[in-house]
Design brief:
Elements: H1 2-21, H2 28-34, E1 47-51, H3 77-89, E2 94-98, H4 108-117, E3 121-126, H5 139-145, E4 149-153, H6 159-166, H7 170-184, E5 195-199, H8 210-225, E6 231-234, H9 241-249, H10 253-262, H11 266-269, E7 277-280, E8 286-287, H12 290-294, H13 312-316
Parallel strand pairs: 1-2, 1-7, 2-3, 3-4, 4-5, 5-6
Antiparallel strand pairs: 7-8
């Protein structure tokens, strides 16, 4: 276990070195000063995002978690219970569950049931294809019966693009599950069952305008498959994990970071998701966001660093840890777990 932890730490340090060493890139903290913006700080916590682990049925090329079938990291029931205890003791209205594939954690349904009992809004980030497997097929109905909001990854409405990014056959599985979710009431007009889709670019470029792309998705998914959904979120690829390795292999990390830095938007910097959330790792460690989690950057030492020692006062006003990967969330219209954060912005680089 110790050697595995050392290996993971070394990999995180290596990724941070790549991000810091990119030539010609102004350090993110300096960029904030140049824009006459204060250091990033929390503005309270409205969302607890819980990463259930790195086990996943897919090994997507862009995955910042580097999740896959061969990973073993998975949240224990004890850690999940500690998350519920924090929700019970504090006014944090939403639980955002992610992974890996959260469906592959054996404690997921229990966590959802208990969070719903506490009156919390529950969101689950699903890759859709996992629900097409016999072992997890029942979860779609479970989600519907518990009023869970689904945030489903669908990086394109075209088969070739999705299978190239996520693996052969993933598109067909995703479409089959979306049709079934529609039958359950998800994504339909006037339904309380929200189904949001997530787009991320297939390469080292910024996502297009969220509203325009949503219109394209609605038109094409209806025309091709009679599928409806609630919203589309566009999320910028963050240079972390598998995507960072891909950028390095193609010698394009510096160009991509420069593209993000050139599109830095002070308005987006003021609205990033880390200001209103806390991220819980599969082992209970606390982070400002899921991306910091994958880089091994825990919350500031003067605040809580583990879910079992959570303190709402210190966490609600904590200093947020930033590095150069933060340019991804502050470029153009901005990027968060709920998509673009700025409605209009003239992007200098598309």
């Amino acid at each position: 276990m110790k050697s595995t932890l050392h290996c993971l730490t070394s990999e995180c340090e290596k990724q941070l070195q790549y991000l810091r060493a990119a030539a010609g890139i102004t350090p993110f903290c300096q960029k904030l000063k140049e824009a006459v913006l204060p250091p990033m700080c929390s503005k309270g916590i409205s969302v607890m995002q819980v990463n259930m682990g790195k086990v996943c049925n897919l090994s997507c090329k862009h995955c910042h978690v580097e999740a896959g079938p061969d990973r073993t990291e998975s949240m224990s029931r004890e850690t999940a219970a500690a998350c519920l205890a924090v929700l019970a003791e504090n006014d944090i209205p939403a639980l955002d569950i992610t992974g890996g594939s959260p469906e592959m954690n054996p404690h997921l349904t229990w966590l959802v049931e208990e969070a719903v009992k506490l009156g919390r809004k529950v969101m689950i980030r699903t890759n859709l294809a996992v629900l097409d497997q016999a072992l997890y097929a029942h979860l779609a109905g479970f989600y519907a019966s518990h009023g869970v909001e689904l945030i489903a990854s669908l990086p394109c409405y075209l088969e070739d693009n999705i299978d190239r990014q996520r693996g052969e056959g993933v598109y067909v599985s995703s479409i089959r599950i979306l049709k079934y979710l529609n039958k359950l009431g998800y994504g339909r007009e006037r339904s309380q069952l929200r189904l949001s889709l997530v787009y991320n670019p297939g390469g080292a470029f910024l996502p297009p305008d969220q509203q325009a792309l949503e219109a394209d998705y609605r038109r094409e998914l209806m025309r091709r498959h009679k599928i409806v959904f609630s919203r589309l979120y566009t999320i910028t690829n963050v240079p972390v994990g598998r995507f960072l390795k891909s950028l390095n292999e193609t010698s394009s990390l510096e160009d991509y970071l420069a593209r993000l830095a050139d599109a830095f938007n002070p308005a987006a910097a003021g609205m990033v998701m880390c200001r209103k959330m806390i991220s819980v790792g599969w082992d209970g460690q606390l982070y400002d966001c899921d991306f910091n989690q994958m880089l091994g950057l825990p919350c500031a030492p003067e605040s809580s660093q583990h879910i079992e020692r959570f303190n709402i006062d210190t966490m609600s006003s904590r200093r947020i840890i930033t590095e150069n990967h933060c340019y991804a969330c502050t470029a153009g219209c901005g990027s968060s777990c709920s998509g673009a954060v700025v409605v209009e912005y003239a992007q200098k680089i598309v």
